[in-house]
Every structure is written in C-alpha cells, then in structure tokens.
Amino acid sequence: MRTASLSVIEDGGVTTASGFRASGVHAGFRMNPHRLDLALVVADEPCATAGVFTQNVFCAAPVRRNRRLLEGSVQGQCFGMMRAVVVNSGNANAATGEAGLAAAEEAGQIVADALGCPPDEVLVSSTGVIGVPLSMEAFQTGAPAAASLLARSGGHDAACAIMTTDTRSKECAVSFMGDSIGYEGCTFAVGGMAKGSGMIMPDMATMISVITTDAPVKPYDLRQALKRATDVSFNKVTVDSDTSTNDTCILMASGAAAPEGSQPFEPGSRAFALFEEALEQVCVDLARQMAKDGEGATKLVDVHVRGAKTDADADAAARTVANSPLVKTAIAGHDANWGRIAAALGRSGAEFRQEDVSISIMGIPVCEKGLALAFDEDAALAAFEDAEIAIDVDLGAGEAETTVWTCDLTHDYITINGDYRT
Amino acid sequence: MRTASLSVIEDGGVTTASGFRASGVHAGFRMNPHRLDLALVVADEPCATAGVFTQNVFCAAPVRRNRRLLEGSVQGQCFGMMRAVVVNSGNANAATGEAGLAAAEEAGQIVADALGCPPDEVLVSSTGVIGVPLSMEAFQTGAPAAASLLARSGGHDAACAIMTTDTRSKECAVSFMGDSIGYEGCTFAVGGMAKGSGMIMPDMATMISVITTDAPVKPYDLRQALKRATDVSFNKVTVDSDTSTNDTCILMASGAAAPEGSQPFEPGSRAFALFEEALEQVCVDLARQMAKDGEGATKLVDVHVRGAKTDADADAAARTVANSPLVKTAIAGHDANWGRIAAALGRSGAEFRQEDVSISIMGIPVCEKGLALAFDEDAALAAFEDAEIAIDVDLGAGEAETTVWTCDLTHDYITINGDYRT
C-alpha cells in the first residue's frame, strides 16, 4: 500500500504532527508507582476531531460521554472541535452506572481546569478493569502533573501510559509533501499511538488509539476518512460486533502544517486522497502492531483470502480462520495443519465448493482444489521460525479479497488471562 | 428434566437397548496397538435409522455417503432402514476428494461383507486427521475381527474405539416402562455413546454419537425426534454453523422391546412423548459429558441465560459467553471476573439494556442491574473448587431462556492442540 509519496518517520508518534503536545504520568490508577497510567494529548487550538467507538451494549461511561460531545450536525456521526484527549489505564469505568457517567464528567472537568479550557473540549477515555469506581483522586493529582509536562517530545510517554497488558508501546507516523497537491513548501504528518494487547481473541481487551495530523481537514470529512481507515485496519483485527466495552479511536486535525487561512483538503482532491492514504498506513501499522503484541503472542499472522464471491464472504472466511483457536494453537506449535484452516473456512458461512479451494502457508502450497498436497515438512518447519506467518487462501468462487491480522495462541495467553484480575 | 418415569441405567450405553450388539477393536488406523480404533454397532435386523450431520462446506466423504444412504422420502431429511454403523478413529477421511468418497464406499462394502448384509445398510463414520487417505487395509483387518466380537456386552469397547483426544468414554442409557402407555409388561431403553473432546471451542474436533433404542419408532418420526433432541443437547455445546467436517449423530430404533406386530409409537401419543423425553435425557447427558471432557478442561460450565427477548437472543447471549476465551480462562483461574461476562453479553447481538442485567456465579450475585455488587471473594474462591460451574444471567428483557454447556480454557488445551498432528 505504501507509495513513493509517503515517508515513514522514524520514532514518529502522536506528537509528530505539528500543533500537538503530549505527556504521560503516574497518577495512581495503578499500584505500581513506576508505571505511567495517565496520558494527555493536547492541541494548541481547538481542532477538528472525529471518533469511532465500540458497538458493545455494555459500553463504558467515557464512551457515552465522548459520543455526546462529538455528535456533529449529521445524525449519529461522531465529530466536533476539541482541545484534548485524556486516557487513563488501570480502570475502564465500565459497568459503573450513573456514578460512572458522573465520574467521566468530573474527570473531563478536572483536566479542563488543568488546561484552562472548557470541559466539553476534553475527551476522556479509560481502559482497565470493569465494574470498579474510577478514582477522582488520581485525576486530581495526575491532571495538573500531566498538563505541566506537555511537550512536543511527550508522545512516547503518552503511548506508554495507555498500555495495559501490552508488552511494548505502539506508535508510528508518516509524512507527505504538499508541493504536488497545491500546498507548496508544506510537509504534512499523520501519526498516532495505540494500545490493545488482548486482540488475540474476538472478545479482546480494550483497544484505544489516538491519531493526530497537521493537515487541514474539516470535522465531517475527518470522520469519513477515519471510518474508512478503521474499516481496513483496526476492524480487520477485530469485528465491530466483537468490540470491548471501551474501544475508541480518536483522530484530531490541527491544520498547523498548512499556511494560515489556506483551504482545508477537499474530499475528491489529490490532497485528500494522499491524506487518506497516510491515515490508512498509520492505522494499518498500528493494527498490525496490536496483532503482533496479542496477549502471549509469538507470531503475527496475516490471513489473506482471495477468490471470494463477495466482500462479506472474504471477510467471514478470513475472520473465521483468524479467530480459530485450533489454527492459532497449530501456528504456535509450528504445525502446517491446513485441515484446521479448511474446517474453519467450511463453517465460516462463505459460499464456495471444497473442490475449488487452495491454501498456502508461508508461500508453500499445502492444499490444491480441496486436496492435500505433498509438501516438504522440513521447509515448512523452517518457515515457521519467521515472526510473521502468512496464510493465503483462494476460495475459487469469485474476485473479492481481504486481509485480516491475528496472532498465535500460546500458553502465555492462558497465564495472562487466567491471572489478570488477581 | 428428569421425570419419575425415566430410570437411569448404571453402566448403560449403546447396547443397552435390545436388538443391538457392538464391538471395538484395534484395526490399525492408529500406531499404538493397544488403542482401539474401529467401533461396530449392529442391529439384529435392518431397523429405522435417522442421522443429523455437519453443515460444514468441507464435509467429509463418509458424511456425504451417509446423507445419500439416509435420504428418506421427504426431501433433505436423513432417515432410512439400516443394519450397522462402523466408526474409525485416527483418520477423518475429510478433504480427500473423489478418492475419499470411493474409500468410504469401499469401507462400507468391506464391513457389509463381514456382516453378510448389503453395503447400503452400513453407515460409515470417520474421525481424526484431515486430508490423509483412509487405510483400506485397516478395514480389511478390522472389520472381520470386529464382526466376530460383536456382543450385547460390547458397548463399552465400541465407546472406547471412537475416542480421539477424549480422556474418557462417554456412555449413558435410560429406561421407561410400557405399562402406562399401552405396552403392558414392556420396558424400553434408549442408550448411546459419543466422542468429542475438542468441544471446548467453536471449531471443535469432530463430534460423533451413536444412539440406539428398542422402542418401535418409524424412520421419519425418529428423524424428527432426533432433530429436536440434538437441538437442545449437542447443538447447545456447539453451534450448527460451527460444526466440524465430520460431525455425526445417528439414532437406530429396533423396536425389539415391543411385542412382535405391535404398533409403532405415534407422534402426539404419551408413548412418543416419553420416548422423546428419554432421548433428550440421553443426548443432554452425553453432551454434558463432552463439554466436561473438553480438551484440557478442569470444569464443566453451565451458562444459563434467562430474561431474553427471544429464543435467538437467549441462544446468542449464552453462546457468546460460553465461547469467550476470556471468560473461560477466568474460570480456569478461579476468578469471578463478571466484567468479561458482561463484555461478552454486550457484543452478543442480543437486545437488552445494560442497566437491566444481573449476573450470578455459583449462585453468588456479582452484578445487579448492570452494577457491581460487593461479594465475598473467599466464598467465590471456595465455590470455584466445584467441578461444575454455574453462570446465571438475567437480561431483564423478556421471557426466553436457554442453557449452553462449555468448559474452562487451560494450559492443557494449548498443549493438546499445539502438538496434535506432530
């Protein structure tokens, strides 16, 4: 997907785009005093902001509040003008009822006071344990501390502060030049951070991502771009209907890289297309980082399905393979057990005939036209040493295709999740 | 569900009903010479037989053959008159193409020759590895041996011979008296065997069950009764659309316990109702045995959902909880983590409001009206020592309810499935 027009920015993240500062502090949501647990991302000015949120009925209090604040002029869409996003880790503020909603409001007020802006310009996100009251004390201590540390160089601390069972922070950024798109001399950036480590399973832990850009984009257009980008990235790691109680992706556009008074990128223009390409690349990169850091994971798995009759069939087939515990344990065991892939395809609901299906693992054909192929088991074993495993399926039923990302299923997943709350 | 009219028969199984003999031998599908791998269940006379089979697109060759043989006079229904069922373990004869279909036919012929009956009266089932040619040699050796060992006492050997990763054989039988239903002096039995140990996950290993009865029931009525019984038993452990390539449940009715020339049980009669009750109890018992013996399982988990708006909602909610790896790992870790149950309910697609939901674990209320309840953590920990864990959910949205069975998710699941084929 990468074009020559986009450049990856080394060590890029949520403060790569101009017009944003960030910080991460230990506020006290967690016991461990060395663990950052409050992240703040702040725009220099109120700026265009869009959000995509969980569809879970048990959606958390902060998600409800964010939806209300971002309710744009178009029904049900989530966009508006915002100054800041604050994220706490360690407590999800979910299943907390009216008290939880009040806590989310109060948290927004505390952060707004620390920043000197209206509370309705502050989005609040939470991730962690469900059903436990959110500590206001931690916000009272943490918000002023975080505000005082805000810096252009604070992106990494913010990315660390939103981690839960993640083993590493997830950040990336890309840039593109304005010369060929009517913004001579300008360089635009899109960058972001994400957390989400339980993405290994359909009922993963919370995913939270904050992305910023200094391209000039209007709130409604930002929302459209975000929806498209999340559909081919974060939503290819997990299903919409499989979201957790807190899943959140927020995108802010400062426009700071464009000359003052210049026109925003218009949908349909080359500038907007380039922006969307950059946004998609950032989202896909963060999504793959999440899959790779799945709880207990040792492998990133790319499941590519082509030859499907419809897009929905491609998606169902790829997801069913990607979610199959039997496929995931086989990969952990370095076992090219394509029978489990076939069984998953067969129950996916996708329309195809078994005698038309071909499957490759790491480029090694293992099943052709529904039948086993003899393959070099030693070569397959060697291929499994790679940290990224590719599964390619051709359903032989049409032209649609998609890729879904997942990881292997290991003993460590059980250890992490059998002993999380205690 | 048990009524005073039904008696559980200790050590009962697939040969408890009169008119049936069975055996289990080592035929050579497996390397280990001490492991039985060929089961034979034979009726003294051709008798009414019904089958329910996997919906998986990658359905195995023997399933295709059985469907063809059992195609009754009513379109798409599976019933007919049969003499025998043979089951081999160690090889699924799935994803084997035309050669696999020919192998299934040949296996039927070999067994028919050993029994002296037409091949079209012999159903063949297979379970094991996918994509490997079925050994005819093993049938040639095993079929005569199994035929020579057929006995009224052979049910347990047969039940052992169909095991794959099962840690114990699964058998049960119940009986009911004919006096109050117009069959004075008669005692009828329904009994069966099952295998299926990967039922812990939606893409489980194969489930195979053979059930017999000596009640007189016509093939079409038998099929209707079997469909109803599997819907509330085996299909509550796994979803229809989540079946493996080989899932099979066969029910044979000899009528041998009724006086010669007597009328078959008529649908709508008290006799038929009692038969259906007995069949359901056998199916539920076998289904729970399967869930309890899920790969790596230490607990049987009953997920009971009530207060759902529709039956479909109850089913979706219960299944989503039962299939949630996060819920299952929490149970393995003795953790009353109801937040994971709430998150699963929220993404199940069932219609409800979070403020109407209540959840109990082992009878201990942990969530009421969507909010956390303080509960005695020590009492909860003690309750988790039980081998059977009860999760009760009230969605507060209607009157529908259901129960789904599953098991916990442990390290042993990973060990078994990360190292199965090698």
Explain the overall architecture.
Two copies of one chain form a homodimer. Mean pLDDT of chain A is 90; it is low at 199-204. Chain A is globular, with a radius of gyration of 22 Å. The first copy, chain A, is built from eleven helices and 15 strands. Chain A has two domains: 6-292, L-amino peptidase D-ALA esterase/amidase (4-Layer Sandwich), CATH 3.60.70.12; 300-417, ArgJ beta chain, C-terminal domain (Ubiquitin-like (UB roll), Roll). The first copy, chain A, is 31% helix and 26% strand. In chain A, the strands form two sheets. In chain A, strands 1, 2, 3, 4, 5, 6, 7, 8 and 9 form a nine-stranded mixed sheet that branches. A six-stranded mixed sheet of chain A has the order 13-12-11-14-10-15. Chain A is of the alpha+beta class. In chain A, helix 5 (219-231) crosses helix 6. At the A-B interface, helix 8, helix 9, strand 13 and helix 11 of A face helix 8, helix 9, strand 13 and helix 11 of B.
Number of strands of chain A: 15
What's the number of helices of chain A? 11
Pick out the low-confidence regions of chain A. Answer: 199-204
Give the biggest sheet of chain A: 9 strands, mixed
What radius of gyration of chain A results from the CA coordinates? 22 Å
CATH topology of the largest domain in chain A: L-amino peptidase D-ALA esterase/amidase
Helix content of chain A: 25-40%
Instruction: Please state roughly what percent of the residues of chain A sit in beta strands, choosing from under 5%, 5-15%, 15-25%, 25-35%, 35-45% or over 45%.
Output: 25-35%
Secondary-structure element string of chain A: EEEHEHEHHEEEHEHEHHHEEEHEEH
Domains of chain A (count): 2
Q: What CATH architecture label of the largest domain in chain A applies? A: 4-Layer Sandwich
